Protein backbone atom coordinates (compact mmCIF):
# COMPACT_ATOMS: atom_id res chain seq x y z
CA UNK A 1 0.00 0.00 0.00
CA UNK A 2 1.42 3.38 -1.04
CA UNK A 3 1.79 6.16 1.51
CA UNK A 4 -0.30 9.28 1.17
CA UNK A 5 1.67 12.45 0.57
CA UNK A 6 0.86 15.72 2.31
CA UNK A 7 -0.33 17.17 -1.01
CA UNK A 8 -2.65 14.22 -1.64
CA UNK A 9 -4.03 14.50 1.88
CA UNK A 10 -4.75 18.23 1.46
CA UNK A 11 -6.39 17.60 -1.93
CA UNK A 12 -8.59 14.91 -0.35
CA UNK A 13 -9.59 17.33 2.42
CA UNK A 14 -10.57 19.97 -0.16
CA UNK A 15 -12.68 17.40 -2.05
CA UNK A 16 -14.31 16.28 1.20
CA UNK A 17 -15.12 19.85 2.20
CA UNK A 18 -16.72 20.49 -1.18
CA UNK A 19 -19.04 17.49 -0.72
CA UNK A 20 -20.19 18.42 2.76
CA UNK A 21 -23.52 20.18 2.97
CA UNK A 22 -24.78 22.49 5.67
CA UNK A 23 -23.04 24.50 8.34
CA UNK A 24 -20.13 23.08 10.29
CA UNK A 25 -18.24 24.23 13.36
CA UNK A 26 -15.43 26.65 12.71
CA UNK A 27 -14.46 27.26 16.34
CA UNK A 28 -15.76 26.64 19.85
CA UNK A 29 -15.07 28.03 23.30
CA UNK A 30 -16.60 28.20 26.77
CA UNK A 31 -17.90 31.59 27.95
CA UNK A 32 -17.83 31.34 31.76
CA UNK A 33 -19.55 34.71 32.20
CA UNK A 34 -22.66 33.51 30.38
CA UNK A 35 -22.16 29.81 31.24
CA UNK A 36 -22.41 28.85 27.58
CA UNK A 37 -20.46 26.71 25.14
CA UNK A 38 -20.29 28.95 22.07
CA UNK A 39 -19.92 27.28 18.68
CA UNK A 40 -19.18 29.48 15.66
CA UNK A 41 -20.41 27.95 12.42
CA UNK A 42 -18.97 28.28 8.92
CA UNK A 43 -21.99 30.45 8.08
CA UNK A 44 -20.95 33.04 10.68
CA UNK A 45 -23.81 32.11 13.01
CA UNK A 46 -22.95 31.38 16.63
CA UNK A 47 -24.96 29.04 18.84
CA UNK A 48 -24.74 28.98 22.61
CA UNK A 49 -25.46 25.88 24.69
CA UNK A 50 -25.99 25.72 28.44
CA UNK A 51 -23.76 22.79 29.50
CA UNK A 52 -26.33 21.59 32.05
CA UNK A 53 -28.78 20.98 29.16
CA UNK A 54 -26.41 18.83 27.08
CA UNK A 55 -25.79 15.12 27.62
CA UNK A 56 -22.18 14.51 28.59
CA UNK A 57 -21.69 18.08 29.81
CA UNK A 58 -24.35 18.17 32.53
CA UNK A 59 -21.86 17.50 35.34
CA UNK A 60 -18.78 19.07 33.77
CA UNK A 61 -16.74 21.58 35.75
CA UNK A 62 -15.62 24.93 34.38
CA UNK A 63 -12.11 23.49 33.98
CA UNK A 64 -13.55 20.58 31.94
CA UNK A 65 -15.31 22.99 29.59
CA UNK A 66 -12.30 25.21 28.92
CA UNK A 67 -10.59 22.77 26.56
CA UNK A 68 -12.67 22.27 23.43
CA UNK A 69 -11.58 20.86 20.07
CA UNK A 70 -13.34 21.07 16.71
CA UNK A 71 -13.01 17.72 14.96
CA UNK A 72 -14.13 15.80 11.88
CA UNK A 73 -13.94 18.80 9.56
CA UNK A 74 -16.31 20.75 11.78
CA UNK A 75 -18.91 18.03 12.31
CA UNK A 76 -17.81 17.28 15.86
CA UNK A 77 -16.97 19.11 19.07
CA UNK A 78 -14.76 17.23 21.54
CA UNK A 79 -14.11 17.89 25.24
CA UNK A 80 -10.91 15.90 25.90
CA UNK A 81 -10.80 16.27 29.70
CA UNK A 82 -14.17 14.51 30.08
CA UNK A 83 -14.08 12.55 26.79
CA UNK A 84 -17.41 13.99 25.64
CA UNK A 85 -18.38 14.53 22.01
CA UNK A 86 -21.14 16.56 20.35
CA UNK A 87 -22.36 16.11 16.78
CA UNK A 88 -22.91 19.53 15.21
CA UNK A 89 -25.71 18.57 12.75
CA UNK A 90 -27.67 17.01 15.64
CA UNK A 91 -27.20 20.16 17.76
CA UNK A 92 -28.59 22.24 14.90
CA UNK A 93 -31.68 20.03 14.92
CA UNK A 94 -32.11 20.66 18.64
CA UNK A 95 -30.90 17.24 19.76
CA UNK A 96 -28.86 17.77 22.90
CA UNK A 97 -28.41 14.10 23.73
CA UNK A 98 -29.58 10.57 23.00
CA UNK A 99 -33.30 9.81 22.68
CA UNK A 100 -33.28 8.03 26.03
CA UNK A 101 -31.51 10.89 27.82
CA UNK A 102 -33.80 13.52 26.30
CA UNK A 103 -36.91 11.48 27.16
CA UNK A 104 -35.77 11.19 30.78
CA UNK A 105 -35.21 14.96 30.94
CA UNK A 106 -38.62 15.65 29.43
CA UNK A 107 -40.33 13.21 31.82
CA UNK A 108 -38.57 14.78 34.78
CA UNK A 109 -39.69 18.26 33.74
CA UNK A 110 -43.25 17.03 33.30
CA UNK A 111 -43.24 15.49 36.77
CA UNK A 112 -42.28 18.84 38.30
CA UNK A 113 -45.04 20.70 36.45
CA UNK A 114 -47.46 22.27 38.91
CA UNK A 115 -51.04 22.79 37.76
CA UNK A 116 -54.24 23.62 39.63
CA UNK A 117 -55.58 20.13 38.87
CA UNK A 118 -52.40 18.47 40.19
CA UNK A 119 -52.46 20.61 43.35
CA UNK A 120 -56.13 19.73 43.98
CA UNK A 121 -55.40 16.00 43.52
CA UNK A 122 -52.50 16.28 45.95
CA UNK A 123 -54.71 17.99 48.58
CA UNK A 124 -57.38 15.31 48.16
CA UNK A 125 -54.77 12.57 48.50
CA UNK A 126 -53.47 14.27 51.66
CA UNK A 127 -56.94 14.13 53.22
CA UNK A 128 -56.84 10.36 52.74
CA UNK A 129 -53.52 9.94 54.51
CA UNK A 130 -51.16 10.88 51.69
CA UNK A 131 -49.18 8.74 49.35
CA UNK A 132 -49.31 5.02 50.19
CA UNK A 133 -46.11 3.56 51.63
CA UNK A 134 -44.03 1.34 49.39
CA UNK A 135 -44.07 -2.28 50.41
CA UNK A 136 -40.74 -4.05 50.96
What's the CATH H-level homologous superfamily of one domain? Uncharacterised protein PF10387, DUF2442
> What is the fold named in CATH at topology level of one domain?
NE0471 N-terminal domain-like
**What is the class of one domain in the CATH system?**
Alpha Beta
| C-alpha-based Rg, rounded | 23 Å
| Structural category | alpha+beta
Query: Percent of residues in helical segments?
Result: 25-40%
Strand numbers in spatial order across the main sheet: 1-2-3
DSSP strand (E) fraction? 15-25%
List the secondary-structure elements in sequence, H or E.
Answer: HEEEHEEEHHH
CATH architecture of one domain: 2-Layer Sandwich
Number of strands: 6
Shape: elongated
Quickly count the helices.
Answer: 5
Terminal CA distance: 65 Å
- Which regions have little confidence, pLDDT < 50, spanning 5+ residues? none
Largest β-sheet summary:
3 strands, antiparallel
Give the overall pLDDT as a whole number.
86
